[in-house]
Design brief:
Elements lengths: L3 H24 L4 H20 L9 H12 L1
Helix pairs in contact: 1-2, 1-3
Length: 73
């Protein structure tokens, strides 16, 4: 499997975990869902980086996202 897809899914999960984290902290609740999402995001991103030969550079991230979205469209 191409490691680009888990990399993009991990980035999306990390972005979605931030509002959940802030919402839980503002309401005085434990951020369980945010922690699960952030943990899953970290696992996916690390797995993709290790699986991709040479890893990913910061400059490559927009191209990887566009490539994954284009593959599904």
């Amino acid at each position: 499997m191409n490691p680009d897809l888990p990399f993009v899914i991990g980035i999306v999960l990390a972005v979605l975990a931030l509002p959940a984290l802030f919402s839980a902290l503002a309401d005085g609740r434990r951020p369980r869902a945010a922690a699960i999402m952030a943990g899953s995001a970290c696992v996916l991103v690390v797995w993709a980086i290790v699986s991709h030969p040479g890893g990913y550079r910061i400059e490559d991230i927009p191209e990887v996202i566009v490539r994954v979205v284009a593959r599904f469209l």
